[in-house]
Structure prediction request, 333 residues.
Amino acid sequence: MNELPEQLRQASPVGEQDNMAQQYDMQIFISAGMPEGVLKHLFSQATEFPRGRVRFVLRGFTPQKIGPLIAKLRALMPDPNADDLVIEVDPGAFRAYAVDAVPVYLVKEKSPKGDKWFEVRGTQSLKVAQQNVKRRSSLMMGELYAISEPDILSVIEDRAKNNDWEPVIARAKERAMRNLKPGFDLPTATETTVRFFTPTFTVPHDIESPGKEGQGKVLLAREGQVVKLLEHTKLPAPIIVFDPSDVRQTKLVKSWLKKKEYSRADLFVVGFNLQSMDAKTPVTLELANTFKRPVYPWMAKLNERMGVESVPSIVEQEGDRLKIQSISPQAYE
Prediction:
C-alpha cells in the first residue's frame, strides 16, 4: 500500500473486525454537507443494486439534531417514504479507514480465495467506482468534500470527560443494590416431591413479518396461539432455587454442586429479609463469593414461567417441560 500511494489500495485496516460489512457489496462514506445533487445521484444509483447490498455511512450528527439530518437525507432519496437504502452512523468505520473527506467508496471484489475490499476516493458513480476497482485505477478519481458532521464518538468522549461521574456511580450502585436483592419468597419444602411444569406463552396478537423481497406479509403466529417455550429454547444448565438464610438449604446446595450433574447449575435465591454483611454490597454478590459462582435473585415473573412452589428446588429440562424436584431439608438434619 505504501509503495504505490497514488494507486487504488486494498482497504483492510489492521485488527478491524468487519464481519457486518460482509453483507454489503459496496460502502460509501458520505456527509450531508456534500452537494445535494451528488447525494441525489448516489442514492438513485444505489436503488439499481440489489436491495440492502449498498451501505451509506455517516460519521455522526450534531447532538439533538439527528431528526433534521434524517429529514434532509430522506428528501434526497428517490422515494423519501421507502426504506430501500441503508444509511448508518458509524464513526468507527470512518476511523478504521481514515476517512477525512468524502465521498469514499469501499468496493468488494469477490474471489474464490476470499473477498477483498478496495478503496477509491472522489465523486463518481457507483458503477464507475466498481469499474475503477477492476481496472486498478488511481486512488483519487473525483472531487472530495469536507465532512460536516462531527465524529459522534469524539463528542461522547469529550462530554464524558467533563462529567462528574461520582453521583452517577452512586445512583447506579443504589439501583444495583435494589435490583440484586431478592424480592420474592417461597415456602420451605416439607416433603420431597417431583413434578413437571410446561412453560407456555399465549400470543397476544397476530405477529407478521415482511414477505420475500419485502412483498406482502407472512403470518408467524396467530392471536391466542399457545407456544411451548421449551420447543424453541433450552436451559443451558440446571437451576437451583433456595433460601440461603436456611443453613440446611445452604448445606444441601453445596453438596449438590459437588455432583457432576449439578456442577454447572445456576443459583437463584429467595427471601424478602435477606441481609448482606456489608451494607454497601448486594447480598447476591456476597453469596456469589461464598459459592464461587454468580448468584441471582429469583423474581415473581420468573417463578410464573418456571412453576417452582417451594425451596430448595432443582429445575431441569426434559423435552418441552421442566422437571422440578423439591427436597425437604428436614430429611437432612
Remarks:
- The longest strand covers residues 104-109.
